[in-house]
Amino acid sequence: MIVSKSVSSSPVSILSIASCFVIALSAIPLSLAQDKTGGEFVSMFNGENLLGWHVSENVDSVYVEDGCLVTNGPRAHAFFVGEKGHGSYTNFHFKAKVKTEPKANSGIYFHTKYQEKGWPEAGYEAQVNNTHSDPKKTAGLYAVKDNFEAPVKDNQWFDFEVIVEKKHILIKVNGNTVTDYVEPDDVKREEKMSGRVLGKGTIALQAHDPISKVWFKDLYIKALP
Fold first, then answer.
1. How many domains does one find in the chain?
2. Residue span of the structural domain in which 125 resides
């Protein structure tokens, strides 16, 4: 439920001034906040709408429910672009809270870029799947360094982190490292996976299919040196 805020016409107190200051800060565009904070964590989702996200292919498969970003429906990907396109990162620390419903499949792409349709070709995918039939489970680096044992259960919120520093990728669940991968300097992928290399790009959240419902909230990212 969205609660609107109003400013009283009574004499302004120190407390009301502080409240107004907080409200003003929350109104700063995502792109501006990112430019000004530098190495601080930046909120990627306001809990009310998809401001700062660009959804491909089937736009109704990504929506806001109960203050969460939800992926559920025919294939789509929500790409983080910021309000004015400032959504590209090289070294970064991404974190979110995630909840899967039974048999759900999703993924968190990084170092990727917007494309109109299909599975993103650029960047890597951090898998999100605890009970879907695909054997590749949550926090694996999909088709590169897979994880075959779900670290968490469905219907429970868990902390998900992706950290990239130069050639080093860490994927964590509830603070525990599940995937630790260093990309070789001379990495070569088969043709259909040729884009699975580190470079620079954004984050994308995946709607995999109509029976897969995955919830995301508290999405933050921090640029690293």
1. 1
2. 14-223
